[in-house]
Amino acid sequence: MPALRDGEPAPADGLLPPSAVAGAAERQFSLYVHVPFCSVRCGYCDFNTYTALELGQDVSQEAYHRDAEQEIRFADSVLRATGAPRRALSTVFFGGGTPTRLAAADLVSVLTTARETFGITTTAEVTTEANPDSVTLEDLQTLSDGGFTRVSFGMQSAVPHVLETLDRTHDPRNVGPVVQWAKQAGLSVSVDLIYGTPGESVADWEQSLQEAISYEPEHISAYSLIVEDGTKMAAAMRRGEIPMIDPDDQAEKYERADALLGQAGYQWYEISNWSRAAQGRTAAQNRSAHNLAYWHNQDWWGIGPGAHSHVGGVRWWNRKHPVPYTNAVRDGISPAAGRESLDAGTQLFERIMLETRTVDGLPISVLQESERHEVAGLVAEGLIEGRAAIAGQVVLTLKGRLLGDAVVRRLVPQLS
Fold this sequence. Notes:
three-stranded antiparallel beta sheet, heme, iron, metal ion binding, TIM Barrel, alpha/beta, coproporphyrinogen oxidase activity
């Protein structure tokens, strides 16, 4: 796993500069809860996750929810001391790792603490990620009864040999039943897929797409496989045991995903995400509200080891390993390892990078005058939509989505 950058020292009291809470009442506030436990580490994964064997007796999964709840209360005290206005949570997201390695009742306990501490809006989206093998109907009903509204299942593929290459341990035959259990429990469902795994054919990928579509989830994410240095898969590639990632293969599979999902009624709203109208809600209403908060640079507090937070242009990240994280939380001090204050240029770059990924696009008016002349060229090259540009927005075409990084480089002064 990559190391966290150093940044500036993070104060033990966690207090934020006054600039961080200026205008906070106009921004949404979200909570991310990182659960760092997995039963097995997948070969491609570089997330901050640990198996029970790696942690030994140093960190207890059974006690983890109490540490997360303590950090939630600490977050509230910091925001109050900094002078932030009270804001009810618009979204809550439990990620990992595998959050459902914790008991459903413990996840509900963390959510209850968040509700009692901050309040939650009546329309809040509350999501947990889950491995298809890690939940029962009873678990999902407990989550729904406790205030969760949505579950995101890590399906990744429907093809056994692809799952084996990814070191995924779940039985693909379990995905359909758990999706139906989630719906029975009253939860909205998202299914996550990965494409471009070495050895995955186009036919394999189409099978995975068609099976995911057949479960009729409200939301489907499709991510290209990225192999980071330091992972088991990266080492296997260096040794020549599995082939390297083929960008042309990934582009073809992305185009197939967009076509098949579109035919099934799913609408793209971010490069890797599609939603559909279902359960009396429009496709737009079934988008991931939590991820949209990230893409639109709202405020969020990240709970747990290695979790990142952002409030008003100040970003910080927690100590990575669960042991020093837990020690700090229990000592009543900030578990942050470092932080940074984003200057205007960095904030502009991040806005361009994130908003161009979405179907709502980026207002051309935010671009510097020297970069606005690039828009006409991008339209002519078929990378952004002409009608949207005339209306004042940068919106990627399908070709533009495949070359999104190149579009950003054209629109950001320091990258031109």
